[in-house]
Amino acid sequence: MTNNTVITINGLKKNSGKEIKERIREDKQGNIARPLYTTSVQWINGFQTKTEVKSGAILKGDEPSTYGGTDLGATPQELLLAGIGNCLAATYIGGLSAVGVKVNSLTLNVSGRVNFRAAFGVEEGHPGFESIHVSVFIDADETFENINSLLNKLLPTAPIPDTIMRPVPFSVEIHTSPEIDFYE
């Protein structure tokens, strides 16, 4: 009789990271090695938007009432910070699980101040985030020194923080035709 017990750590199948890495290595330049991510953002009313991602998840967007919105969804700034936090959480859990570190809890608080004075033309400058700060609160079955060392090694492998820390080509195409379905 064979033992079909699946061993997990932190909710991930043991050695899944190695299996994924091998699939990426074999895929060369395909959809596993270099996946295309898309979202579709539809304006609803006022500053309200509905964002649909490929998985089918729906995100509501809006602006605070302070800026003319209705407080019925996440702001673009909050969505960006959430993307950073989600990416780091996945990177950290994946990396720590790969080396056998059990994590009891992980919380990432991501914050940053945006220059709306520049965004609204009150002053010259960049209208985006002036800086972004991440506080990581982790309880794991390992010493602080080892956890700190591991997380610092993992940080450069996180795609979303990497994307915002370096110049990335950005383009916008404007069309006046009917909507295009990204998922056809």
UniProtKB/TrEMBL annotation:
It holds the Pfam family OsmC. This is OsmC family protein. It comes from Providencia burhodogranariea DSM 19968.
